[in-house]
Amino acid sequence: MRILLLGSTGFLGGHTAEQLRALPGVRLLVGGRSAEADIRLDLTAGPGVLADALLAARPSVVVNCAGLVAGSAVHLTDVNARGPAALCEALGDAAPDARLVHLGSAAEYGPTAPGEPVTEATATRPLGPYGATKLAGTVAVRASGLDAVVLRVFNPVGPGAPSAGLPGRLAAELRRAAEEDDTVRVGDLSAHRDFVDARDVADAVVRAATAEGPLPPVLNIGSGVATSARDLAHGLVRAAGFRGRLEETGAGSARSTAVSWQCADITSAVRALDWRPRRALVDSLQDLWARPAPAGVPR
């Protein structure tokens, strides 16, 4: 089996690459813009250029972990919306029988009812450019007619978590303050989120890539548990052995205020992929503290 992986230098892509390389009978090809990539490929190029790269790769599966979590609306659109659309068109021309596994985001859902786990049938109402562009990518994948599945990932955590998310950002702040037993100031931590270990996400990707037969078009990938950001923060403080103060200074981000509670219903993923998250949050936080993100690593 030839698997082409896009976004291998990111947080989720790196863990996915590690697991795919360990699979017997799999030839992993890394696609990207760097000279080290097996297949030179840029998602922001046109479908014709992408088709040429796919013809060279001859993949049986394409895994798209590439994406942006921050930046201008134009840049987010190029990578998160136009990129998947161009990839789907190119696959239709160059590798129509290949399976596509595409990583979506829980931000596509937007506000959800507190206490109610989100199913794949829940209405999508993204609040900002990131969620909107990720949803546009999902729509493109679903409309492509390809053998494709979108894994809608909730809040990834674990070793190498980047500072774009709360766990990685807080770990960096704790490291900065640890030498002086200083105070770490954060915004409001009352929002609840579904934190899932990046290695469990990678396991879901591997299962989706190697599953026999068609899969549902969208599958939620989360822990199935809502945890307050405050509990996560204090868990990371314990993992770090931090002796300073963690101080909530006021309002959190606009998204935390608007989306106060979010949790995945993972029933469909359990059924379709025979997958369940295996790592407890306490272990994810300990491993994050032991293995911080390299500088510049995106999601």
Summed up, the domain count is 1
CATH superfamily: NAD(P)-binding Rossmann-like Domain
Q: What top-tier CATH class fits best? A: Alpha Beta
Most strands sheet: 7 strands, parallel
Low confidence ranges:
none
- Shape descriptor reads globular
How many individual helices? Answer: 10
Task: Evaluate the radius of gyration.
Answer: 19 Å
Family: Belongs to the NAD(P)-dependent epimerase/dehydratase family.
Pfam families: Epimerase
InterPro entries: Epimerase_deHydtase, NAD(P)-bd_dom_sf
Protein name: NAD-dependent epimerase/dehydratase family protein
Describe this structure in words.
InterPro entries: Epimerase_deHydtase, NAD(P)-bd_dom_sf. Belongs to the NAD(P)-dependent epimerase/dehydratase family. Residues 3-222 form the NAD-dependent epimerase/dehydratase domain. It is a single chain. This protein is 39% helix and 18% strand. It contains ten helices and 13 strands. The strands form four sheets. Strands 3-2-1-4-5-6-11 form a seven-stranded parallel β-sheet, with helices on both faces. Strand 5, helix 4 and strand 6 form a beta-alpha-beta unit. Helix 1 (11-21) packs across helix 6 and helix 2 crosses helix 3. The longest helix has 22 residues, at 73-94. The chain is globular. The two termini are 26 Å apart. The mean pLDDT is 93.
Strand and helix map with partners:
Layout: E1 2-6, H1 11-21, E2 27-32, E3 39-40, H2 47-57, E4 61-64, H3 73-94, E5 99-105, H4 129-142, E6 147-153, E7 155-157, H5 166-178, E8 183-186, E9 192-193, E10 195-197, H6 198-210, E11 218-221, E12 227-228, H7 229-240, E13 245-248, H8 254-258, H9 267-273, H10 281-290
Helix pairs in contact: 1-6, 2-3, 3-4, 5-7, 7-10
InterPro entries: Epimerase_deHydtase, NAD(P)-bd_dom_sf
Organism: Streptomyces maoxianensis
Family: Belongs to the NAD(P)-dependent epimerase/dehydratase family.
